[in-house]
Every structure is written in structure tokens, then in C-alpha cells.
Description:
There is one protein chain. By secondary structure, the protein is an alpha+beta fold. It has one domain: PAS domain (Beta-Lactamase). Helix content is 43%, strand content 24%. It is built from 8 helices and 13 strands. The chain has helices at residues 2-62, 66-75, 89-92, 117-137, 162-165, 176-179, 230-237, 264-272; strands spanning 76-80, 83-86, 94-96, 99-101, 104-108, 143-148, 152-156, 192-193, 197-199, 204-215, 218-228, 247-249, 255-258. Strands 1, 2, 5, 6, 7, 8, 9, 10 and 11 form a 9-stranded antiparallel beta sheet that branches. Strands 3-4 form a two-stranded antiparallel ribbon. Strands 12-13 form a two-stranded antiparallel ribbon. β12 (247-249) and β13 (255-258) form a beta hairpin. α1 (2-62) packs across α4 (117-137). The longest helix has 61 residues, at 2-62. Mean pLDDT is 83; it is low at 263-279.
Amino acid sequence: MLVVALSTVSFWVSYQQAKADHIQSLTEQAERRIERESRLFRTIEDRAAQLAAAFERRYSALADNPAYTEKFDRWHVETEPGTLRLREDFFEGTTADSQWFESVTTFAGPGPRPLSDEIKARTIIAQYLVNEFGPALHGLVTNTHISLPENILTIYQQDNPWGLLAAPELVITDFTTVGSTLQEDNPERTPVWTGLYFDLSAGYWTITYQVPVDIDGQHMINASHDVAMTKLIAGLVEPEIPNAQSMVFNNSGQLIAAEETLSEFHQQQLLTQPATCAF
């Protein structure tokens, strides 16, 4: 009986120690993983803040330049009644007014017409900026884009001409992605990470980071980056820790992605439900 008692006590102590060591090991591995994955998101946030600051500087200097209105009229075509798009050669590669443009598209959907000179200038400034910032961020993010609350979006993306593919009746502010940046829905004017959504125009699952920019109380643009879920799939489906499950949350505690959200069954379910945040 004594031997049995001593063996039981010894086993219990060893078990508790092994359990504590295992938990400690899991915690350390999880902390390293979180730090590494969070670094990507912090970098994206920094780049979006730089893009927003660049717009403010450029707008203050150039918004009243009549040449920008003239550029808008030359560079854009009405592809459907009420819908304007940047000419296709800006995506394929072209020199416009001594500036090389490539992989840039713009969609100006249903909205206020005629467009004011200020909106046209704001759009041209945005196009210059995504063309300048986009190439350096290629590989880190899926795209670099700037959206305007007047239902205009200009985007740099090498493998997808989003502005040429968007449905002509699309109103981007009707969905929570851009809608979450509007003053009535975001009075604090805080940058936001969206939840996971399916971009119907691009055809992939993504999350978006947006920095709303106001000047003199007017909502001017959102400096934004998309991160396609392919960047997170490998880590979520094949976690470093055996039998562990990884999930991604934003700062509000909203679930962005987990293994279940990446399954074909779950994605089909989302596609058959009313979309609240898909372009």
C-alpha cells in the first residue's frame, strides 16, 4: 500500500510538472507566433498612415491646380451611363504627362454628377499616390488603394484590374468596408481593420485596413491596403503547434479568420447569404 501511495504521489507530481512545462512551451510558441504575425499588420498600418499623410501634403499643395481637372477629363472614359473608369492603358503601362503609370485602375460609380473640379483633382492626386506607393508595397499587401466617399476608388494591383472589373452599378459606400469609414458611422475617425469578406470584383477573400482622412472637417479619402487570405492560410491550416487551432482577431475582438472560415463549405455559405461587406 505504501509503495502504491508513493507511486501515485510521484506520478501526480510528475504529471503536474509535465503539464506545467507543456503549457509553458505552448505559451512561448504562441507568443512568438503572435509577435511575428502581428509585425505584418503593424507594418501595413504604418504604410497606410504614410500614404494618408502624403495625400494631405499633396492635396494642400495641388488641389487648386486646374491642370488636375484637365488630366481627369483626358484620362477617364465613361464606360457605362454614369460610370467613369481610368483608361485601360494605365493598367497595361503608359506614360501620361511625363509620368509612368502601370497596374493602376480607377472606378467612379454612380454618384454626384457632374463631378466637381475638387473631386476630379482629389482623384488625380490619389492616382498619383497609389502609382508611387503601390510598387514598393507589392508582395507585402495585395493592393494599395484610395477610396473617396463620393463612390470613387483608385487602386494599384499588378494582377487584377479592379477598376475595370467593378460592376457599373456598384456603390462602395453601401457596404461596411468603406461604410465603416464614413463620418456618421465612424465619428471618432479611427483607422479600421475590416472582418473577412469576399471581393466579388477581384474574386478572393480578403481583409482591408483603412485610414480615413479629413481636411477641415470634410471626409476626403481613405488610405487603404488589402491583405488576401492566402497570406494567412498556411499558418492557419498548418499551425506550428500540433493539434492547435489559430484564429485572427482585430482590435475590436471581431473574428477575421479561422480554419472554419477558410473551408469551402463556410465560404459557400457566406456567398449564399446577403452580403454586408463584399464589393
